[in-house]
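Problem 12. The chain below contains 368 residues. Write out its predicted structure in token notation.
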Amino acid sequence: MEENQNFSKDNNTETIQTENTQAEAKADKHLITLHLSHKNGSKTLHLKKGHLIAASVAALLVLGGGAYAGVSYLQTQNRLTNSQQQLAEMEKENRKLTQRTEILENENEEYTQHINEIQMKTEELENKMTELENTKQSLAEEINNMSGTSTDSTATASAENGDTACAEANLSTACLSILENGSTSQSGEKTFTTIVTTSYNKATSLSAQLDKMNVMLDLTGASFVDVATNVTETLAQYSNVPMGYPLEEYVMSTEFNPDGDPTISDGRVHKGVDLSTRSQIVPISATAAGTVVEATYHDDYGYYVKIDHGNGFTTLYAHNSENLVEVGDTVKKGDVIAMTGSTGMSTGVHCHYEIQLNGIYQNPKDYE
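Solution.
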């Protein structure tokens, strides 16, 4: 019995050792062992080295991939930004080129139009010069015929009137000489157009002549303007239509406001204009020819002059320091009729100027 009990104890001991050995072997296979407790019991988790290595490799791959993706994204973003900047610069240059192209096209059209105009003017000049050349040829032929007739009848003409025949011959010779000096050729060819061979040469060769003609026309036009101005001024002196203002230098202090518009000047009713001379006493001139119908003093106007210009026009000049004309005087445009002042209802030296047409007040600005 004792031997059996001892044998059983030995077997149990070996079994326990074997289990411990197996547990130690299993423990050696696991790097980390986690024991989790819960209400229904406990659970053990074992992490092997391979699992940890695999997790580490996976983490490295994820981190490396994320870093590579981030770097690639930044590089792509930079390239995209650079491409957008280059595209914007290219669009800007393209706009500049487009604008320059439009400018060049416009200049080309203007140049072409200018060349066409010069060609037309050149052709007109050529035609006129051709007509002049043909006229010279016709005159030369007639003079030659006259000269030949005079030569054939020289003997008879000399017997009757030698001086007359000689004068006719001399006249023919002189005329031919003038024509020869004035013309480069006696033939009907247009030798004066030899330099006009192409459109460019035509424009170049005649542009200077056209410029000279323009200068001559400008001088003639200026002379005509002077003459027209003198005529206009002479007629204006006797014109019965008011024109301009009665002062040479002035500042318009109050404008025409017959309806009392509050947005005009000081907003009060004003049936003329006030021309301030800044405290200077200066001459007042008639703005048209006419007859003085009033030259007196008024409580509101002070010293004033009224002129009847006929055709329904009258003008009035008020607040004068003195009147220089009398009722019945005839005046021309520009004649001095009074001196500026501040008489009557006035707050400063000025000229109150009115125009009426058939009794209706007119804005003097409409007659500048």
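Discussion. The CA atoms of residues 257 and 270 lie 5 Å apart. Students who got a different answer should revisit the alignment rule from Section 12.3.
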